[in-house]
Structures are given as C-alpha cells and as structure tokens.
Amino acid sequence: MGLKIPKRPSVRAATFGVASYEQFIALPQRHRSMSESPVPMDHEPAPIPIGEPLAWPLLDQNGTLLLRAGSIVGSEEERRFLIDHFSFYKGVARTGTAENANPGASDARAAPVTLTQMRLAIGAPIGMRSFFATTSPMRRSRLIGFSPDHSLFVTAPRVGKLPLVLSAGENVQAVAIGAHAVYSFSCTVLAACSEPFHYLVLSEPGAVRLLRERKAARVQTRLAVKYRALSTDGEAQGLGLGRDLSVQGMALVSPRVLGAIGAQVQVSFPIRTAQVDTQFEAMAIVRNVKDSVAPDGLVTHGLEFESVSGEQQFALRSFLFDCLSGSAL
Questions:
Q1: Contacts from 67-73 at CB under 8 Å and sequence distance 24+?
Q2: 110: Cβ contacts below 8 Å, ≥ 6 apart
Q3: Domain 223-328 belongs in CATH node 3.20.20.80
Q4: Is the pTM above the cut of 0.70?
Q5: Res. 39 pLDDT band, cuts 50 70 90
C-alpha cells in the first residue's frame, strides 16, 4: 500500500504487512514504562514450589520477568539453579531490561555516519523523546518512509494509547536499529500530521553516533530459559540461564551438556515489553559448547535459532530494541 502525503515530500516504499495501519499500532499497552523500578524485597523470597504452578510471577533483581505466574518448576535441580543464579525482587516487571549497559556503548565514533550508511529499513523500530526530556524513557515509533531530501516519515510515538505531542520545530533524540548496527541521532520535527493517521516528518538525522556494531545486535541478559534436548543419552530438560541474546540466537548456560555441535535444543522464555507479552519458543541448533572450569561445572552452549515464526521474531526484536534503547542514552 503506497502512502501519499499531500503537499509533503513523497514517501518511498511506505508499506505495511497488515490490513490497516491501526491494526499495526493497536498493540497492548498494559505494562508500565521502562523507567519504573521494581521494589526490592526486604526479606527472603517465598519458597519456590516444585511440581506446582507458581502463585506469583518470578522477577530478577532488575524486575525482568523470569517465570510467569502458573509456571512449574519441575525438580529440585531446577529450583536450586534458580536460587543459585538469580537474585529475586518483588515488584512490577520492567520491560526490556538488559543485564548491563555496555560501558562503551555511548562513545562517539570519529567518522561521521550518513543516513545511507545507517541502512534503516521500512518498518524499523525507532525510540524517540524530546531533546529536553533527557530523563524520560524512549517512546516507540516506526519508520514508514523517506523523502528524496533524506527526511524521515515515522509513526507518532505513543504514551499509552495517545500519541506523544511534538510540534514542528521541536528537536528530538532518537535511537534506531539499522541492518548491522544501532545508532543514536537527533532530528528536528518538520511537521506533525494527523491524517490519514498520526505521523511525523523529521529532518535528515544529524549528530549520528554508532553505538553498537555486529552481525546481530546483542544484549547481555539474564533469562530463565526452559530447555528440552534429545540426545543419544535420552532427553534432557530443565532450567538454564540465557545470556547474549540476539535475533539469531543466544548463549544458554546449563548444569550439563545438552548435546554435541549440531544437536537440536528447544528453548522457551517469557518476553514482556510495552508492545508484546508472549512466551518465546523456538528450536535452536548447538553451534559451540564450552565446558566451565569452575567448580560448579556449568556448561555454556552457543545456540542459533531456527524456524522462528514472524510473530515470535517481532516479539524478540521488540524486546531487544527496548533493551538497546534503554541503555543507549
């Protein structure tokens, strides 16, 4: 569906994979913002039952959702793994929380970066906030088109169900995920439009900073991951620690070797952001195995996701974007 904006620069390739744009942006807004912090527990957590549904959601010390209410810890080994590798807090689950921000993530690179080099794709997520609201969380937007003069057309960022009020001439800070890197930049609002839906026309990005560069944007996470693996020794299942998450895979730390290189492992963990709330499930291939030299004998597996549905990919990208934009500025 081509988007035509009267009396504005023409939009290139502004297409959406849904029946209407309202369906695209009408996603759940049930959760609190990334700026809210969980309330730490002032006592030991309640005992984690074995073989029974959890009566409460289990959160880590940053408020990241580890296990949903109703999840079942199947064995004493799983319970002990949770206690040994996670610190529990009591509070509202934060959305898109990374374990640690990269200390060098905000370092400016010497060479200037152009819009063409950023390689932003139509539909790319963009986090945005007013230039003067430096303590406010980034608000989600999406790129819907370019003009010949390199202006950007983006959906209006939202606060709950309402669009964020930005006026022509206002400066904004933004973070976007390109094809091979994450960038921060500044723009000026050229126009704020409400027809045929709320969108903004932004000036060509300026003061572009390269924040991260790799084959797939990756964040340091601490996720409680349920796994199931089939090997010549039978079936292995349990709880592991998910780290180094990207759209292509993750590192899974477990108490035992789950299989040789090339083996398949099924993984599952909750994803909760301001846009999605779902259980991520995928088959993965073991690409490398690193035995720990520590006394605990933990094993780190490098996993590559395969056969991930479009819906699951969207959820994973949303989570990664929230993690990256939350620590970028």
A1: 67/224, 67/270, 68/270, 68/279, 73/48, 73/49, 73/239
A2: none
A3: no
A4: no
A5: very low
